[in-house]
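User: Can you predict the 3D structure for this chain?
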Amino acid sequence: MGGLKDILLFIILLGVLIFVHELGHFMWAKIFGVKVLKFSLGFGRKLVGFRRGETEYLVSVIPLGGYVKMLGEGATGGDGVSDEVPEDSEIRTPEDRGRALADKPLWQRAVILVGGPVMNLIFPIFIYFFVLLGRDTIAPPSVGTVFAGTPAAQAGLRPGDQIVSVDGTTTYGFEDVVDEVEDRPGEPLEFRVRRGSETFTRTITPKPTQTVMPILGFVNEVGRIGVSPYYRTSILGPRAPDNPAPALRAVDEVVSVNGKRVRRLIDLERARTPDDGRLDVGLLRAAPIPTGLGAVFVAEALRVAVEASPGRPVADALGATSSDLVVSRVDPGSPAAKGGLQVGDRLLRLDDKPLVTWLDAGLSPEADKEGPHSLLVQRDGREIPLTLELHTETFRDPFGQDQKRFSIGITGYQRNSADEPIPNPNRLSRAFFGAFAETGNVIRLTALGFAAIFQGRVSVSAIGGPVLIFDVASHSAEAGATSYLWAMALISINLGILNLLPIPVLDGGQLLFFAIEAVRRKPLSRRTREIAQTIGLILILALIALALKNDIARKWADIAGLFGCN
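Assistant: Here is the predicted structure, written as structure tokens:
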């Protein structure tokens, strides 16, 4: 049943996008008074259909495209090829005078032509709108973590602060803070902050930070102030040899003290040891369980009694510390193990770069060299320099491309917590503007991806065909309706941009013919158009063959498994 369900989800996704595309052609043809003879989902032999008015609506046997056939032309639609009779054998009545596509002004023909792909680019706005409209809650504008050495730390922001507004713009949720900060790197901004019952103002200048888009490699500059909505988890630091509480171990997570739930490090920093000096500590400890695939770590719950000086901060009494950049596991035989890294070490600097988050600890083969790299760690209150010998390793990304990366061979303790979500305010306007913003961003990234392929910066192995779409449909549906709709929006934008490429047979190629006609003040000869269409068809067939080859390469292990091959 799972296979039939996946096939149905694939047909629904593709069918909706084809319908949207052809509806764009159909709608503008009707607006401009062009007679539409057929509206087909799919092409080839007709399966089912009906006639309403002057148009026949049908579903055809091959579901990988569609077409709108208008009076005076074969078929308009970047997704299919019509096998209809040529235009000069069509029977026209006196009422059809002026209703053929060729009778219309050039600009109207161009609008009808681009109506399909543009509809594919507009359709995601509606998808994103309804998805975002369903968000009941958002993350509050709370400061969970302030990273050392960042503009926020220099301005005195602390965990627990609420950012009320940025430069006069009210921030209802943390995403509002991100939007204001990312778009204005290097620009002094006035932050209004609430701390308990006190409200104050700080001027913070977001630090210009370069981000690299995965796979595409494009660099984008955004603003960062160095805050996160997630609070630091309370873990125990390295234990001294004369540890008075030997039951406590490094990287144990503190989850309760004297019966009170602990979710954040600041809870322990603010708490004090009671007058009797006794602390009943609840811990979570990573315990390895051997399996056939290696050790799997699960959380083991423990309770430990600790004696401490009355009135002392609980964090100090337990030796609790932030989980930021603390090593919780070192892979045997890895560069980290060979370089002397230990569980409980806190990473401070990598080469000449101070480390603030785990993202900073990543090295890129494009920007960094193989060989020795210096690492400074904190261990037992001391700073210890280490040397790691790093070499690139090759892995296959989700697009089937071979990529290179550095692997240090460590795992960090990254459990975090955040304040409870709050009701989503201004849900309607947030969904409306968010839908436009998300659509514009995806269109931009998709266009950059197409450009990167043509420029050779991304391998053509990233191109996918029906099998890839099938996988995306099935996997996204498994993640839920929202993920499925999100995938539909992404594929719709890809189809829209693809159909606008200036390749004969596609809508973009026909638009190119119209542009040439506008310059020459007469259309290209029939022979020239036929040659161009043939070349375009060859290119499209080559593209389809390449996509299928990539699909087979991605699924080769599964295919070989069916035949008992390794």
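The two ends are 27 Å apart (CA to CA). Residues 2-31 form the longest helix (30 residues).
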